[in-house]
Batch of 4 targets.
Target 1
Amino acid sequence: MRRIIATLLAVFLTVPAEPAFAYLKFGTRVNGRQVTLKWMQTPVRYFVSSRSAIPGVSVDDFQAAVGRAFAQWQAVPTSAIAYQFGGLTAGLPGEEDGLSTLGFRNRPELDRVLASTNFLVDISSGALLESDIFFNSSFSWSTAAAGELGRFDLESIALHEIGHLSGLGHSALGETELREGGGRRVLGAEAVMFPIAFGSGTIAGRTLKADDIAGISDLYPDGDFNSSTGSISGTVTKDGQPIFGAHIVAFDPATGSMVATFSLNAQGQFSINGLSPGPHVVRVEPLDDAETDSFFDQSLAVDIDFKVAFLDRLVVVAAGGDRGGVTATVSRK
Amino acid sequence: MAAVLTAMHVTTAHAQPVNAVPGRLEFDAGIMWAGAQPLGSHDANLTTGTGSTLRLFSSTSDLLGAAGFEGGVAVKVTRTVDARVSMSYAKPQLRTRVTNDSENSAGANVSEVVQQYVVGGGIDWYVASRRSGARIRPFIGGGAAYLRQLHEGATLVATGQSYDVGGGVKVLLASRTRPRQLMRAAGVRLDARVVVRTKGITFDGHRSIVPAAAASLFVRF
């Protein structure tokens, strides 16, 4: 069996896998065709490294915190994804042992990586075989219910990484600003899958948002998800030409919720799934130039030279239907 | 007993007479207008590290006022009361105004056209008025109706109820009293109402109150 390991680093680093068409799901090439990366069988069994204790976080604390994060993804009513704690293992995350392992590793050279997720993929079928999450113990961590000043919240970061483990890529529903001394600071985010973490001491990232829920439900639809929600699809053009990498946000004016995606191919096509029925405001914006490699491989030409624009029509989403053929036209800055 | 009878007599003597509108069956058709229905405001918010919100943009939505068509059939129930069924059709715009965008200060107005049907029934009660002449019949009335609103492309339907109270006048342009003539009266019906809508297109689930008015031509048989 031919195998490759695709390492997907979740925070601050690039996502080298190819994005699938709808939403920002991970994808890979199997026999020349694009396949969405997802677990074929659930529950997904995960293990906790028995060597993952660090000052302030015992193995039990670690197991409880990641357990709460797994439980939150599993509790999404419109998603069929399920997880099962398989027990403790002496292995470490990143070891190719057939177990999906979570634990700490000390990687001081990765001075901007809080945690990362990697996958073991069977490239003959596209099946996910293993996915490990490592948390960088060169940072300070906390599992306290209210968070701790100066320490990153393990549950919040685990929630983000488990989204990756489940097959979700990054969401761009957030705003950042440059920080003195390098890096970016998050001003606000409306998706757990936003690629840059909140600062230490906060637990604001412990709650899944509408965008996360739509994404996981799109990957693992359950119950009446496909019949009770709808989608918007179309193209983004500039000067009559399709553009790649435009960020498209569907805003529900009845609830204030937002679900987003990108134009993900050379034809400028996009598709936003998991939308509540009703009219939506569609907003198209460029990615910040400093953020593009958090979403796409650097070899891809992401167009960021256009102004924020709104579609002049409300786009009505019907339950179980796709409102296709939407064309968003943007103009140069 | 004598005192009671006297009192009743006095009351009757001071009441204004109500002239019945000739004919038993009325058909009317005309135009109507319904006012704007505010649907509320929502911000597109991001969550900050402290758990507070950072506004990406604001939105305010309204179902705008619109003119349409209305028709009805009324049947005389008593000398002063007609029962009426009616239907109206209008195409109001559902508009969302986007303001305060963090990266696009111009904002935007985005909209769709809604097809709105209202089918219902009610009562018109003719009342006496010192000012009403022989050709003018003031009335007050109220009713309930089924509300059906189709979003653009008829891909999504919102249904609800509509209740109205109001009043108006019927102005008789022609009136015939000879018993063998089929058409007994014709004229103009003008009314103004307060409409309470429940469900239908609503963003907050609350009832909404909108003004409405109509002008139509009627014939009575």
Note: Chain A touches chain B through 40 residues (CB under 8 Å).
Target 2
Amino acid sequence: MEYAIACTDVRKSLGSFSLHLENFFVEKGTVHGLIGANGSGKTTTIKLLLGLMKQDEGTLSVLSSTDIAQDGEAKNRIGFIADETSVPSLLNPKEMGSVFSGLYREWDSQTYVRLLSQFKLDEKKPYRSCSRGMKVKFLLAAALSHNASLLILDEPTSGLDPLSRDEILSLLAEYSKDEQHTILITSHITSDLEKLCDYITLLDDGKIRFTEEKDTLLDTYRLVRTAHASLSDFDPDSIITKREGEFQVELLMRKEHIPSFAEPIRLTLEELVILLAKGGYKG
Amino acid sequence: MKALLLKDWYLLRKRWGVLFGMVLLFSVLAGVQTTMLYTLMTTMMLLMISLNTLAYDQHDGWDAYACALPISRAQLVLSKYALACICIVISVILVLLSTLLFGGSNLLGNASAQLAFGFFFVACNYPLILRFGFEKSRVYYLLVAGVLIGLVSILSQYPQPSSSAFELSLFPPLVGLLALLASLKLSISFMKNKEFSET
């Protein structure tokens, strides 16, 4: 199996926060979602992968490069959107196109202009005058215009209206159809990841809780609703977590452990992730 | 590196109006007056323009963005030093033209002082700005500018020793250039180890 990203026992300490990516692998040709609460380590992971930070321990490889900060060849094949980084705010897309064409070896001006037009971006409008949605589209147009084989995107859809989100997700879905293309994406909006991703990794307090194929994840678990009085009918060992309401209890269980008298309910990725994070993933 | 300079050019042409007006004013005064103050202020103002690009880069997050682009961190630093050197040379040319236009003298002395001042200014300030950021280094670089302008102005009042004017004029810029090269090495080392952690 070929990996676009491989992290083994990577550790990074930032003050009181500590990130530990014990085994984090992103298979080539897949879309991998990285989810977690604020401060769980998503942005730190992205920055490590882009070479904006250096790990304290462990091995980290991006497109087979183990020193991504110094590897211009590998960086030519990465498109990115990262938190706390941006193009110069006074420059417009047209000017940035000229700058990027001198920085990326395989800069494709036609694709860039086509994407700007598709996103209805004004070529002469400075970045700082753009709305949040326009800024993301601008950065995404740049990330998709140099024949990148890996996209690393930190919260590209946050703060966007549903139409813009859909537009961006469609574009990423189109990009991911090519088997050589890999996407690592973080988002708070789990429904976006559910539409797009093949794999999901949950980060919690700097540690990986699980990495799982999305479809397997959604197929494995079910929610069962039952009255408080009937709770004793369930094997306590088969209940992963429970959420108590006023009139009933919601139980998260593996599909095969659900008794025949109970009615299993399929969960959305968001519901599942919340319950797994709460109850503990047992593999 | 050309692309990085192009980026700075786009940035400067949108923001240099007032500063460039002051540069022209100081260069005219440098041609008219005999003191070194306006000559050095011309260089200083042009270096401020160059320095502003660093401030914008750090404020916008471009310095971090650029580090994820397929260019080395050494090239990023080099482009900033190249821009500063271009500004110093432009300031020398402006004062030279002004001096010739208004019939001033001491062409060689002016150029020497401007080059030496410019090189030392960049050598002292750039590593700190790249290491600690523009905001934190603000007080320091104004202090350096004041000390350097004062020092060069005082030294220019003293009678010159009996060596030839040409040899004397070469010495300060050469020392400044050596300091600039040492500073460049230091800045590259700072930049290579720089981490863009969350703020």
Note: The mean pLDDT of chain A is 91.
Target 3
Amino acid sequence: MVASDTELAYDSKIEGEVIVSRADAVINWIRSNSMWPMPMGLACCAIELMAVAASRFDIARFGAEVMRFSPKQADVMIVAGTVTYKMSSAVRRIYDQMLAPKWVIAMGACASTGGMYRSYAVMQGVDRILPVDVYVSGCPPRPEALLDALVKLQGKVAREPAASKLLSA
Amino acid sequence: MPAAPDAVAALKGRWAAVTDRASLDHPALNVPASGLLGVLGALKEEHGFDMLADVTAVDWAAGAKPRFTVVYHVFSTASHEYVRVAADCADEAAPEMPSAVGLWPGANWHEREVFDMFGIRFAGHPDLRRILMWDGYPHFPLRKDFPLAGIETDLPDAEVVAETKTGAIAAPMMGGPFVAKAGGINMADAEPRAKDESWSERRPKPGA
């Protein structure tokens, strides 16, 4: 059981086939442990993103190994690399095609701030066009840093009022 | 077997307007724009310089005469020699050069890049569009009057602009660009974010 699920308790002797919990806890538990990434690999950070998915670091340990190249099946967009202005419309369009709920990780210095590219051609941080949830520092970040970002994002998802959002949507 | 010095001498003998160009490495020629295709064609067909290695341009800054020079590097795959050919654009406001796509199909993208970065139009080019910046970008970034940080413009996609209310901005230079000279600057001071917000071994954290 993951640590954030302290309210999710089940005693088969007492409850039989019934589980009592809060809707938020159940929904967030499901969401945060099967986050399918949309690998928006634009530059060298994408190489580290591949390392994260490979066996040494193994993002599957956190339920996020299913890289989806269709935005319609993805939950979290990992913007890994330099976003040029020319690419910005494609990045935004792919984000728009993702189904809610959806999250964004800005991986590395370029995606977070433009990085070393103080240039006419490079967007100075992808947060100018996308709502970024987690920023990862580094040029490129270590794979562990991206795993940490994913865990932080899972923590953020676990605190969301998912049920009331669903009912009001 | 082509020999670059022989080829250059033959071309100078054939066209009076073809002159030597100062060069530190390969033989180089100055050619008038009107005679450019003749010279390039002769280099390719008669002297064996069968490969167009590069097309680029020089902006000599606003007011200079000539303002733009287009530079070609041709290469012989037989003798492994280069010849550099340079041609000045006559007009500063609407610089133009004949296209070499008829001689080398590979000139296509090189000329598109020169058009994209310098705004030099290539007469006879089959598809002269921007290749690096997006269609509709209003500036030519490698011109001398274009600032390194860029100029505020709209993003390529109007829908994204409407949704995000943002645009292409002049990048914050934070006092840069930082160029290290010999015996010059301390890179900890020069790093953009270190300049006003960070601390280092030379400048300890305030109040620590």
Note: The domain at 36-153 of chain A is CATH 3.40.50.12280 (Rossmann fold).
Target 4
Amino acid sequence: MSLATLRRALFIGLLGGIAVWHLSLVGLLPAFAQRRLIGETLTFSYALLVALFALAAHATGRRYPGALQRVAWGTLSALTAGLLVLALAFVVTQVNLRQIFLNATPDLARVLTFGAGVSPAGILRTLLIAAVAGIVSGVVGAAPAPWGRVSVSAALATLLLGLLRDVLGPILPSGLVSVLYGPAGLSVPGAVVIFVLFFLLFALRWSLSGRAGAERLVAFVPSPARGPLARLVVIFLLASVPLWAGLFLSNVADFVGFYILMGLGLNLVLGFAGLLDLGYVAFFAVGAYTMAVLTSPEIGQRFTLDFWVALPIAIVLTVCAGLLVGLPVLRMRGDYLAIATLGFGEIVRLLVLSDWLKPYLGGAQGVTRIARPQIGPFRIDSPQEFYVLVLVSCLLAWFLSIRLRDSRLGRAWFAIREDEFVAQAMGINRVTAKLSAFAIGASFGGLSGALFASLVGSVVPASFSLLVSINVVALLVLGGMGSLPGVVVGALALVGIPELLREFQEYRLLVYGIVLIAMMLFRPAGLLPERIHRRELEEAVEEVREVAPAEIAPGPS
Amino acid sequence: MQRPARLFTMLLLSLVFVLAACQRAQPTPTPAPAAQPSPTQPAAPAVSPTPAAQPTPQAQVTKPTDPIGVLEIKPGEPIVLAWMLTVSGGTAQLGEDSKRGIEIAIDDLGGQLLGHKIELVGEDSGCNPEGGQAAATRLAANPRIVAIVGSSCSSEARVGAPIIDQAGLVMVSPSNTAPDLTDPAKHVNAYLRVAHNDKVQGRVAAEFVVNKLGLKKVATIHDGSLYAEQLANVFAENVKKLGGTVVAQEAVSPDDTDMRPVLTRIATQQPELIYYPIFNPAGSFITIQAKEISGLENVKLMSADGLLEPQTVQNAGQAAVGLYLSGPDLTVLGPKYQEFVQKYQQKYGTKPVAGFHAHAYDATMMIVEAIKKVAVQAPDGTLYIPRKALRDALYETKNFQGLTGNLTCDPNGDCADPKIAVYEVFSTDTANWPDSAIRKIYP
Amino acid sequence: MAIATPRSFLSGRRLEASQLIVWTIGAVLLGIVFVGSVLTLRAGHYTAAQWRDFIVFGIAQGSIYALIALGYTMVYGVLRMINFAHGEVFMSGAMTTFFLADYLNRSGFLKAHPWISLIAMLLFSGLVSMTIAVLVERIAYRPLRGAPRLVPLITAVGASFFLQYTFRGLFGSGVRAYPAIPVLQGKLWVFQKTQIAVFVGVAITLLLLLLFLQRTRAGLAIRAVAEDREAAALMGVDVDRAIVMTFAVGGFMAGIAGVLYALVFIQVQFFMGFLPGIKAFTAAVLGGIGNLPGAAVGGLVLGVIESVGPSLFFDGYGIRAAHQLKDVIAFTILVLILIFRPTGILGERLGGEERV
């Protein structure tokens, strides 16, 4: 029990409090208060506040092996955060800062004090909740593994299901929905049921006895059949989506599919060949605009083509674009390559936006009335039907990626990624390898763009901004570079979830930024990294940490 | 994750999904195929047995049929109206203003319609095609929506209306004015509007400039959006018809900050007036920078309803004094409008900040009238709203007494009773907008 | 890594075809530009006064780019990373200082003491930006010092979004307009007074920066760390402090650039930092990344080309709305420089070497 530990606990509590200040003044916390997760009282904001208290407690407590110390110091941090929260609520009600900070309203104060306002009751309530959060966090943290992880995961899963009520409502059987869900979030009994369910599920997955049980069950399936069976099940699941997903979910699934396609393409360039391409949106744009120009009656009055004719043309043109981009940047390295490709991406966007090319490319208003695919008499119209096309394309791209990864070209790419000059010395033709990376990677992007244009029916220049390129790079990094399942995970996380939570559209990019920073700080190798990559990255980051631990840890400085 | 555990989890998941798929009670109302070259729909009989004029729905035992689909609202469920407006960025005042018009309309109805609560949802459309596309896609994917009030900007609607049309929904715009949107060759069935067609506004603006101001040489600047480009063209055509000359027609981008090259190029042609019917902040950049270009010191500046908001004067300051603005004539609207303004002031603390709040109110009321006409109430309290019939009812709107005048819809979606005025900015004081800063000078 | 510079290594036969294509494209572009300029000048649409105005404005805008570019180049020199968030640092100063400016205006202080107000605004903006820059460094960059270059890049992008949307949430998505500063209204001889203020402001700042770097110990530390981080550490330089100082100085200058920008453009908004950020980075690369005079020169050159370029190069061809291609010109210059002269105008060995 030294001054240092006290200071540390207070400091972490301070950070937690500042995080709440930030989220409050930015407007995220008041906006989340609209959403009820469980019953009538547990709103998203309250859950977030509690989570932040618990997180502060956890960050402090995890250093201590002893349960008592853990709980004590953790609760101290949580209480400190609670005090700061109260301070903000107090300031907001006493001083009118609304001219400057738009969100410093009395409503905010109510949210911060868990509904009671700035009064003795409110103060007590907030501090009490902070304390309880701290204690629970400490207890859960001190519990023998894996029970801590299981309970936290189960709690998070329950809250997530409460959040996704609008999404799950239409697809689950209505009987189930009326039992589990109340008017706005989970009903209380429903929440309990779901928590228990997930608790059991996670316990099964993470505890030793659970794994043993699963092993025994799976022993029924003969060993050589397991792999193909697993794959079959996955494909069956994926293919079944149009059957049960509504309009909205299918749309989301389609967009996730587009990003998976792009991710797989960029994976060849960045993940396999190590070429930092920040202008991938250019290929997406070429594919989309080719489809648009060739099939829309608005442009080029003399002819319009069928979707199936325009699609291969779009891909071929994108491959050419890939070569055009690859040629000049052959000798560039690292950051410069990134900036040059970023420049290309922006040039493409500016050109399709310009008035000069408007007669050919539609200008600022874009191109509408793009054709939909037609198979015989059957036209693919709805997002659900389109999903099939998207799924087939993704599977094709996946298959190609695997084949490339295991081919000589793929090996050449890995060699280049590791060290270009050594690879050259080993006899690998850098030019061919790099150009083919760009070309093949671009083709996936072009396919994705063409499908996108057809699904939405129109293309507008603003859809092809730098943000798309960054999105693709981020999802690749998030999932783990070079890792194919990582692309899927990244797309689901960075594209799927924001689309599902569309009511919080305004804060999407704020959270995006936080997620990116957090990911890089805590898991730079990604969520499902390729083994080699993860070792490299974590070694590199570890090295720095070892050299200068004092400056990383907060505390006396 | 261990292999066996992974397989096991997947088997479990597939079990859940199979159950879900088998159990699906009713598919969500599937959207109709596109309004474009589409296969013919079965000519289903029209829906309610009652004559269209009856406001109260008749009780009926069987659910009505409709070529697009029927929305089913169970007792206790709300009637969902949606807005698709620009509520963020430089054009936020335009969309916010319209949204408030909708909210006041809902208040006036007591928040209820046909025994169901009215729920208002919405998407920000950003006053650009991408925003329109994204907002329309999201709204189209929500099967509970009955009708949409939107969009704010014509560029949003050009891209968004086909998406709304495809989904079977209907939209009534309070502030789209581009002629193309109701052009017979390009119009989609789902789209109507209560704002004026810019063919009127461009003409009035040209008449003002040539006849009243007596200027002959004009230049136009648009920002690439459908509205601005078409309005600038209509203006130019009318100026030429009245005997003036158009010395330059230029374009900027909505997020351009440096207007000097464009203004300098225009200056070489020595215009007497620059007409730039665009939005903020680009519009204010032009207002501010025009005075700094050599050759344009004495040129007159004129814009349109996109800049008819306090921000225009606040941001450009002294440079805005003398700016002409055309837009809906709110001074001739009668006592019902004055009541509306009072309610607005009471509810939001200011007078209306843009030009289309009354139009949004009218759009909402028109939709409500149409719903009352076509909705069918089952004896158990379920409300059925047939979608195609709703659209037809909107098109059949005739002599609807709205705040903005007498609304009658034509088959191309134009419903407005257009009244255009030209205002002049005479002061930078926006404390009591509009009267403290602008005054009507024509007609 | 002791290896020959890329240029010599790659002049082997293998790459000739691709190099030839690239050189041809470059020559064609240059030809287009040259012919366009000749056509425009011959057509004679613009008076000399107007060309002068273009150039003057270009210098004003370019000097703002230069100030921001200095921040980029200093950070790159010291850390070898592109600080994507720097544009938002610029924005944060400008947006926050709006409230100060508004307050000064409403209370009448601005009219009474315009010069003091202006200096107060500049200092305030500089301090805010400086704080933000230092915070970003501390939280997002420091833990990732040794990581492969993609990781800090993504972090920087994340920080950029975070800052942008934080300011959007705090102050709203609308556009704010700075009050007009009485003393700076109108023209002095043929130049806009605001533009003159910008030159003067930038010149003074550059001078101060130069003095700081050359004459103070902190400046010496920064230059040492930029030169060779390990050797500097061995020499007893506190590397972390030097890096923090770099970010602080870069941030301060970005803040000043923010207010100067607001003087000329008046309207500020939460995403105003994005494009100037990229342009400033282009300027830094143009002048030679890691090279401070280079950043200044690059900024000025870029500003003038942006201002004069679209009219000069494209007017002659009769291209409609040529000024929309202003950014295309900027990015094309960027790509061309990166292809043909990665070391920039003033040359800098950081440009061509293989970095470990």
Note: Strands of chain C lie at 176-177, 187-188, 191-192, 267-268.
